[in-house]
Amino acid sequence: MQSQDVAKRPAASPTDPVVDVEQAEAALVEHYPRLVRLAYLVLPPSLGRNRRVLTAHALTQRALPRRRASASAIPAQSTGRDGDPGYAFVRLQVVRTALEAGLPLSFRALPKRSQLPPLLPQVRGLRLFPRSGGADELALDQRLSALSGPARAVYVLRGLEKLPDGDVRRVLAAAGVDEVDEALREADETPAQYELLNSPEFDPCSLHARPTDLMRRRQHGKAAFAAAAAVAVCGALLALPGGGWGPDGAAAPAYAQNPASQAALDPGKLTRIAPTAWKSATREDFSVWPARGDLADDTALLRRALAVWARPGESVQVSATPGTPSGGPAGPPQLLYAGTVDNARVVILYDGLRIARYAEPKDGTKGAALDFARVDGATGAEADAVVLDRADGNVRYLTAPWVKKAAERDLQKPNAGALPMTLTDGITSPLASPAQATGACTSWNVLQLTDGTGTRLLSDLGELVPAHLTAGRPGAAREVSGTGTQHAWAPFACSLGAMRSLGVRSVNAWQYAEQPLPDASGTAEWVCTRAETWQGGGERVLAQFRTPGGTYGAVAAKAQDVAACGARDPHVLAGVLWKSAAGSWYLLAAGSKGTEAVTATGGVTGSARGGLLTVKTKQGVQAELKGTLDDGRTITGLR
Fold first, then answer.
1. 446: helix, coil or strand?
2. How many CA atoms lie within 13 A of 123 on its CB side?
3. Residue 622: enclosing H or E segment and its boundaries?
4. Which of 209, 283, 540, 565 is close enough to 528 for a disulfide, judged by CB 3.0 to 4.6 Å?
């Protein structure tokens, strides 16, 4: 079995669902931690933990199709993750390339890309590996390393993906495995300790870092220094007057000191707001936050934070939300916080456009981090909280001075109520963050804040500033504070996972239509969720479909950089293929209020007056939707 063969992928059937690039991308982003774990487990342990981690990420990131493609190994379910053709396609690509990566190199043929060390991602000077587990995880890893690649894939698909053997057969066959029966029998000989597959031991997204061979790096560094010196000499010659890049006009010499830049690095000139200034201010925003924290007068710490902001060294981990510049401040920024949090010293600064968070270990500066988030124009709920610290899957917030109470709420369980959180000098107790959770989405914890005007919900999406959640028709959305709005959000909470790390400012959920289902199956609801961003572009819209009694909504359509479902254009149209309990397939489409007619063309032909369309069809067809509004304008279905 060690000499297994991965054959060419079988030809797609005409009835296979068709997956476009955007659909596959949405599935990959939403389930990225799960797919990387799948690749890591299927890859041969002989690669070593560092290369195995980087290869798992590389294979997953390369799993997108170049164009529309057929997904030929989808379990027969109509909703949920396993019924999403995009997820099934990406999962198949991950399994196929992970199996290819385990094949021995041959002198007779060129190696496949997956068999070579990944070009990206690359981490220089560090070895990365998952957290160590216990004795059970170590024993399971040794058993998996003794299996062939296909048998390892069988074990992982059974345990991690919960697929029955029939679906496992189809996935392996589509991945090009010849001896599927042998792989199944080989996997049967390994004890079914499937719960261990979700252990941090096998999580390539939660990593430890250690240095590589320091002596070898020093030797290479000397050679690189010599080469850099030669380049510098050549560059200096090119930059001499009369040649090179030419004169800089009215600019000061490169060695000149800019007074504003120097002032921005002086901790004595930091802006500090009085503790009661917010009470008389006309706006509730970051500009009226007072300076807090037990290290607010630590000049040395503040100087280091400002210096790193202006010129972060190579060892500093720098991150920024999309559309956020990471350059130094133009003048003295405002101090929001400087203090000790868990095992770190944290400084939070604000320059009118950005929040900058500097963090360093308590026992030194090695491993310092600098994070940026764009917050221009933030008011009210958008300026209610900033992430102070992340540790062990938990997040701790620094809240605005006007916040009176904080609580934790599971967005998926509106009847469970809110759990009070302690609030000490504006700092909350730790909250389990959904942005760092892996595996199945069984809960979505959000931060509930109360001030003098009411209650608001904020969700951590992996960035410095949590996203503000609202509900209702665009342009008239309201806070998610009452029973009705909390129940409206519950089935669609997990869809927030598709909006992580996009620079999201707010997310609104709006039930725009209800549709009676064929075969007396009840009434389904159509909901669109729209994420607005700080950069003013990259908005993401998901149209979701939920059948009666369904725990979760299913993403029926999506779009990015569109006005649909927003305050400028609240109209939306989407469709989905749905299978009734009687076994019949239908194309269901729904438009928002103001839609006078809906037409389907392509693989399905039909039309209806009003905003609802129901056409009997067959599995796997593709259709183009067009809606006519009451003002004569036409809209197309989200894709």
1. strand
2. 20
3. none
4. 565
Is residue 489's pLDDT more than 80?
yes
Does 434 sit behind a cis peptide bond, omega within 30 degrees of 0 on the bond before it? no
Tell me, what amino acid is at 587? L
pLDDT of residue 83: 61
Label residue 2 left, alpha or beta by phi (over 0 means left) and psi (-120 to 50 means alpha): alpha
Using the predicted structure, report yes or no on whether residue 56 has a pLDDT greater than 60: yes
Q: Residue 600, by phi and psi: left (phi above 0), alpha (psi -120 to 50) or beta?
A: beta
Cβ-Cβ contacts under 8 Å for 297 (sequence gap 6 or more):
none
Q: Identity (one letter) of the amino acid at 261?
A: S
Instruction: Count Cα neighbours of 353 within 13 Å in the Cβ-side half-sphere.
Output: 13
DSSP 564: B
| Of the candidates 458, 534, 545, 439, the residue with the CA atom closest to the CA atom of residue 496 | 458
3-state percent helix, strand, coil for the chain, nearest multiple of 5 = 30, 30, 40
Euclidean distance between CA atoms 112 and 473, whole angstroms: 51
How confident is the model over 437-463, as a mean pLDDT?
A: 91
Give helix 85-101 / helix 49-61 axis angle, nearest 10°. Answer: 140
- Cα–Cα distance measured from residue 373 to residue 465, given in angstroms and rounded to the nearest whole number: 7
Q: What is the DSSP string of 321-354?
A: -TT---SPPSS--EEEEEEEETTEEEEEEE-SSE
Q: How big is the CA angle at 476 (ends 472 and 481), to the nearest 5 degrees?
A: 55
Query: Which amino acid is residue 477, in one-letter code?
Result: A
Please state, in angstroms and rounded to a whole number, the distance separating the CA atoms of residues 87 and 417: 33
CA distances from 275 to 281, 378, 402, 549 (A): 12, 20, 11, 50
- Single-letter code of the amino acid located at 210: R
Find all residues with CB under 8 Å of 121, minimum gap 6, and list them. Answer: 54, 57, 58, 61
The DSSP string of 19-59 is E-HHHHHHHHHHTHHHHHHHHHHHS-GGG-HHHHHHHHHHH
Tokens matching residue 229 = 């010196």
